[in-house]
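Anyone? Bumping this.
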Amino acid sequence: MAQAEGVASGGGSGCEAAFGELAEVYDRLAEDLEPLAGECRRCGRCCRFVDGFALYTTLLERKYMLRAAGELAPVKSPPKACPFLSGIECTAREFRALGCRTYYCDSANAERRREIHEKYVREIASISERHGIERDYAALLERLVGGA
Ligand code: SF4
Ligand code: SF4
């Protein structure tokens, strides 16, 4: 993938153990979310960050996505959209952040999903701390697109 403007190189061998733990967290999250998933038409709107929507991510999650990005095709995104969005497809789907996984515009089960989200926010913070990775919880675009 052509790196998004302002993107620092992600990953590094020192992150491998943390990436493995993060992948396990995402696997458990998928099990927890399975009965609570909302309706999704896969329109890509939530990845364009319209209507004031922002995706908050930790540095560990961003590093994980950027590591995957090195193996992905070049991405063309409209301004202010997620750099991993191509058309209506997520080009980092397997590596996408917690918020990408727990968000549905469908309000059914939203409160329960929010609770699960908070639980996994804490787990990811714990992984970051154990591996000495700064948490740096911030809006994705602020970090990936250099404040655009
Ligand atoms: S969650 Fe909603 S806005 Fe996001 S892709 Fe699915 S239908 Fe579209
Ligand atoms: S990483 Fe993928 S799912 Fe998450 S906002 Fe970007 S395009 Fe959407």
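Late reply, but here is one note on the structure posted above: The chain has a mean pLDDT of 85.
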